[in-house]
Design goal:
By secondary structure, the protein is α/β, with parallel strands linked by helices. 23% of the residues lie in helices and 18% in strands. It is built from 11 helices and 18 strands.
């Protein structure tokens, strides 16, 4: 197949987009954009998307880690590395749904992580990236962890993939069958060998894929806990089982890239490497606040690397704000596939991939915990509007896990404060108001479950004097009760203090 290359315009700007407060639409838009390359796009390239499970923003050498990831680092050196790429939801199934559909996972019935006992999955009425590519003549294959529903109608081969080799969900779920399409190869997969088997399957696929363009989706099962690696890597790293698992994934990336070169497919193939969300109990967020399950940056910001020799610039660092939801429209347009009729939440970010800035105006980006909308981001600004009273994966208190509306939303300037440590909402009321307006407008267009959760959060307001960044204690809105604890009577409390003051207790 004849593949056209293109040359990048010299001096393409990588300046990060700034934020403008507008008077129309959402009120928030990335208005200033850098110069973008003028050369033609690659013609219907092959595409490989590699996604890790629970890999943190700071877990790759090229993002500051001490873990040895020389092959992944080479991808960044030969391509572009994104510094503000995120997922709209910091949990497994939801993040993958966003990447494969270009939609908020709350739109496609994927607000969390599916379990082996669940009978539902990602909505079948949502078009998928492999589906639109397959319809346009691409060969498609999924390898590794699926986790978007294991009933027949949700299975990868019914969601756009010609073939599937892998497991239905996470390695901490059991039994975990290893499957080829719908055939069970192992009732409970040997978790030590999963990365090696995924690699062998990917290499085999590439060696047989010359007749027409292809889309290969490689979803590694690690470094999700419990951590495993094969004998060749167990004990090899200086950073424990987590480092071992990551070094084996790095080896796998090297094998896949070597196969592309050996088969002559390297210059015709766009390769993406990313993670579904932040790290769980181990792993590095790169000093960002929060972890998996949290809508702080450590939970939602992930590594993203893209490379295609001769078509993408080398060693570029892209600061544009991008999302997993952008992968679907970007790749579909690049591969000349027909996008679905419904509007997508993602936008085409090819200009950023090729060294420029995002050239399409987008709405402010939302992030969720379950059905609960918690944050909104536009450019350098991020506003927290609600928060759980206890983080996910920690013991649930007696009153239950409750999402509380922050009576004083917290605003962070991520260009100055990437750790979300210093709330500056009082200094920028115009930004707070514009972002809140965007939230209100977008909630009205989201599913009823989101609207209901958003209204319920307001019924559980946080303590108005709670410290910024605290996990909130919700308070009663009933007259005469304390702002500090639901059910406490203010008069009774003050009587105690007066008794102390007069010595009459």
């Amino acid at each position: 197949m004849n593949r056209r290359k293109f040359m990048l315009a010299a001096g393409a700007s990588l300046a990060a987009p700034s934020l403008a407060i507008a008077s129309e639409g959402t009120g928030i838009e990335d208005a200033e954009r850098g110069a973008t390359p003028k050369g033609p796009k690659p013609h219907r390239p092959n595409v490989i998307v590699m996604i890790c499970d629970d890999l943190g923003y700071g877990d790759l050498g090229c993002y500051g880690s001490r873990i040895v990831t020389k092959n992944i680092d080479r991808l960044a050196g030969e391509g572009v590395r994104f510094t503000h790429h995120s997922t709209p939801h910091p949990v497994c199934s939801a993040s993958r749904a966003a990447l494969l559909t270009g939609l908020y996972p709350t739109r496609v019935n994927a607000p969390g992580a599916f379990s082996p006992l669940d009978v539902d999955g990602m909505s079948t009425d949502a078009a998928t990236l492999p589906g639109v590519l397959k319809d346009s003549g691409y060969k498609t294959m999924a390898i590794g962890k699926w986790h978007l529903g294991h009933a027949e109608q949700y299975w990868p081969t019914n969601r756009g993939f010609d073939d599937f080799y892998g497991v239905p969900y996470s390695v901490d779920m059991a039994p975990l069958p290893l499957m080829q399409d719908r055939k069970i190869l192992e009732d409970d997969a040997d978790r030590d060998l999963l990365t090696r088997k995924y690699t062998d399957a990917a290499v085999s696929f590439l060696r047989q894929s010359h007749a027409k363009p292809f889309f290969l989706y490689v979803a590694y099962s690690y470094p999700h806990i419990p951590l495993h690696s094969s004998g060749n890597f167990r004990g090899r790293s200086k950073l424990g089982s987590y480092g071992d698992a990551m070094e084996e994934i790095d080896w796998s990336v090297g094998e896949i890239m070597n196969t592309l070169k050996q088969t002559g497919l390297e210059k015709d193939t766009l390769v993406l490497f990313t993670s579904d969300h932040g790290p769980w109990y181990e792993g590095s967020t790169g000093e960002l606040r929060g972890r998996k399950g949290s809508t702080y940056e450590g939970g939602v910001r992930v590594p993203m690397i893209a490379t295609m020799p001769g078509s993408l610039p080398k060693g570029k660092v892209v600061d544009a704000v991008t999302s997993h939801m952008d992968i679907m429209p970007t790749l579909a347009n690049l591969c000349e596939a027909k996008l679905p009729g419904r509007a997508l939440d993602g936008v085409d970010i090819w200009d950023a991939f090729s060294g420029g800035q995002v050239s399409q105006v987008r709405k402010a980006l939302l992030s969720f915990s379950g059905w609960d909308l918690q944050t909104v981001r536009a450019g350098k600004w991020k506003l927290h509007v609600s928060r759980l009273n206890v983080p996910l994966y920690l013991p649930i208190p007696k009153q239950g896990r409750i999402n509380c509306a922050l009576q004083h939303p917290e605003l962070y300037d991520l260009s100055e404060d990437p750790k979300e440590s210093y709330n500056i909402a009082d200094r920028h009321p115009d930004v707070v108001a514009a972002l809140q307006k965007s939230v209100e407008e977008q909630v009205a267009d989201l599913p009823e479950a989101v609207q209901k959760a958003y209204a319920t959060a307001r019924e559980h307001p946080s303590n108005p004097w709670m410290p910024a960044d605290a996990y909130p204690e919700f308070v009663s809105t009933k007259p005469g009760t304390s702002v500090w604890r639901e059910g406490a009577d203010a008069d009774v409390v003050m009587q105690r203090f007066r008794a102390l003051a007069t010595g009459s207790h």
